[in-house]
Amino acid sequence: MVPDDLEVKEEEGSNMEIDVKSKNDNEIIFIIRDADFTFVNAIRRICMMEVPKVAIEDVHIVKNDSAMFDEVLAHRLGLVPLVSDAEATESLLLPEDCDCDDTCPRCTVSLVLKKKGPGVVYSKDLVSEDSKIKPVYDTIPLLKLKEDQEVELEATAQLGIGLDHAKWEPTTACAYKYYPEITIAETCDECQNCVEACPRGVLEFDQKTKEVKVVDVENCSMCKSCVRVCETKAIDIGYQEGNFIFLVETDGSVPPEEVLIKACDVLSKKADSVITFCEGGI
Amino acid sequence: MIPIRCISCGKAVSAYFDEYNTRIAEGEDPKLVLDDLGVTRYCCRRMLIAHVETW
Ligand SMILES: [Zn+2]
Ligand SMILES: [Zn+2]
Q1: What strands lie across the sheet with A108-116, from one edge to the other?
Q2: A74/B contact by beta carbon, under 8 A
Q3: CATH of domain B1-55
């Protein structure tokens, strides 16, 4: 049992807020306020490394007449993103959770590639046995075949996590930055060097009020180019403690919101195992 | 052959390879084509710009 004095109390850090800045099919940008960076980093790392998705693992090559080596072709196939959202992978098991010895239809999906040259073989030529688990993009060139050359292979895809191989990483760019804070002091002599130096168009000079204005603070990368050119040391770049701008971009296989949901599931499972241990152990 | 993904970030840039090439051949500005395709980061942009198709 958990002793009373160890119970979690309402704390300052628990009033975290989230605002979505923009989102589309494979990218979401949101602002987290009043959070601890260790927590935000845990979410980021789990999104990249421990959220499962489907990728080709084994390739059985029947025929490959092309100039490309079998190993290279198998590696290219592994990197092709396959649709692995919750709907598509509903009935698919992780190989380690499946009770079969090696692989079975419950933990694998088979894809067949059969093509005769001449021409370029594309990811759309991969025919999956599951209508939902198929390549995200149809236009990925896989290999080239000359006249009379043939390729015939069977690939097996399975669920996996980024810790084991980068092909199982659902995210491409997955990062956060501190919320920038730009302060311009009274000592500003309106030289406008900072406006010119900023590579991201964060600053603008207002001709009417004769002062430098911050127009797009969230785009600031804190490169401090403006600080370096300011002779009067009027401009300063800092950050807001506890506020972050978080970007999750996926390779199209899993929607970004789903990656975050699954990441939170993984994190709470880890926390649950600590609770189980404490309750059983003490 | 173009690598399937961007070597740095993992974006599947090869999916845009054919469209990029045909639009460049038609005389479009590579910068605008890349912006339009949604290839925004410089790591991904160099994958397409610097690629030499040898075989
Ligand atoms: Zn199985
Ligand atoms: Zn990239």
Answers
A1: A53-64, A150-160, A108-116, A127-128
A2: no
A3: 1.10.10.60
How far is residue A211's CA from residue A204's CA, in Å, rounded to a whole number? Answer: 9
**Whether the predicted pLDDT of A200 surpasses 70:** yes
Strands (E), chain A: 17-24, 27-33, 53-64, 108-116, 119-122, 127-128, 141-145, 150-160, 171-184, 203-206, 211-214, 235-250
Q: Cβ separation of B14 and A141 shorter than 8 Å? A: yes
Q: At what angle do helices B42-49 and B30-37 cross, to 10 degrees?
A: 130
Determine the 3-state secondary structure of A272 from DSSP.
helix
Residue A79 CA to ligand 1 center (angstroms) comes to 22
Peptide bond just before A118 cis, omega within 30 deg: yes
CA geometry: angle A92, A28, B19, nearest 5 deg: 80
> How distant, in Å, are the alpha carbons of A181, A225, B4 from that of A217?
7, 14, 35
Nearest ligand by distance to the CA of B47: 2
* pLDDT, tens digit (0-9, with 9 covering 90-100), for A71-98: 999 999 999 999 999 999 998 999 999 9
Record the pTM. 0.87
Structural domains of chain A in order of their starting residue, each with its CATH number: 4-50+172-250 (3.30.1360.10), 53-165 (2.170.120.12)
- pLDDT attached to residue A245: 96
When pLDDT is cut at 50, 70 and 90, the band that residue A1 belongs to is: very low
CB contact under 8 A, B11 and A172: yes
Taking the CB of residue A17, how many other CB atoms lie within 10 A of it?
10
pLDDT band, residue A6 (cuts 50/70/90): very low
Taking only the tens of pLDDT, chain B with its 55 residues reads 999 999 999 999 999 999 999 999 999 999 999 999 999 999 999 999 999 998 7
